[in-house]
Amino acid sequence: MSFRSLQTDREHSTENVQLHRQLCRQRSNSTPTLCNVASGDVNAKDSKGRTLLYYAAKYGQTEIARSLLDAGCDPNITDCNKSTALHEATDGSHLDVIKLLIKSECDLNIKNLQGQTALMRAVLFDDIATVKILHKAGANVDETDCTGKTALLIGLQEGREKSCVYLIKHGCEVNIVDKLGQTALYLATHTTVKCSPSVCKKLISAGYRLDNDSEWLPKDLLKGLTERGRNILGRFLNIFNKKKQPCNLEFVPEESDELEFPNFRILDICT
């Protein structure tokens, strides 16, 4: 599977997210039909490898999910995309179903075909309520997907600020580098969504180091980052200087320039 296909799967616009969840909730608000299945059939799969529990979780049918779990349905069965009932409940933000699955001791860190855990999916949607539930239940915040990204890196790339702040606050590793060599700072400065200064402050407070940025940072500064990227980087380095942490870049402001943090001088990039 190529990184390009993973990139395509990753892209979720705000409109698509809202539409997806609206459709799920419309279905979940319908009158539930309790299922009476023999205990030996509760784990039966359809042609796509999906069980009754999978569909109950997908459409937020809490009582049906409860009856299936009570009948012995395995919550960890994966479909053809390696998604579980927990992945589907997370995508639909069906909190009651998520809590049921957690109570049934489902595996919180199972990965789908893209290597994403349910926590990563929650971060992708910036669903802070689900992120909190999964984290408190014991989900690993530092699991990586097929591209080597953690939930934090996914959140920074997509501009999911609330989730990023929560993950940093609760001790996620901020210095992990993905398989493409992308760091937290790289993703924060190259996102198409605005990144607030508070995220930069929390990254530094959590022990972020510039060591892993030595490859891309000089090149991007010489090529010229976008206006947004330069502003984010400016804020980041400003905070580094205020905290008196070692930094190998010097920020040189120019009053005549419209950008908030327009210019940097490369000193001695990462020894």
From TrEMBL:
<feature type="repeat" description="ANK">
    <location>
        <begin position="114"/>
        <end position="146"/>
    </location>
</feature>
<dbReference type="InterPro" id="IPR002110">
    <property type="entry name" value="Ankyrin_rpt"/>
</dbReference>
<feature type="repeat" description="ANK">
    <location>
        <begin position="147"/>
        <end position="179"/>
    </location>
</feature>
<feature type="repeat" description="ANK">
    <location>
        <begin position="48"/>
        <end position="80"/>
    </location>
</feature>
<dbReference type="Pfam" id="PF12796">
    <property type="entry name" value="Ank_2"/>
</dbReference>
<keyword id="KW-0677">Repeat</keyword>
<protein>
    <submittedName>
        <fullName>Uncharacterized protein</fullName>
    </submittedName>
</protein>
<keyword id="KW-0040">ANK repeat</keyword>
<dbReference type="InterPro" id="IPR036770">
    <property type="entry name" value="Ankyrin_rpt-contain_sf"/>
</dbReference>
<feature type="repeat" description="ANK">
    <location>
        <begin position="81"/>
        <end position="113"/>
    </location>
</feature>
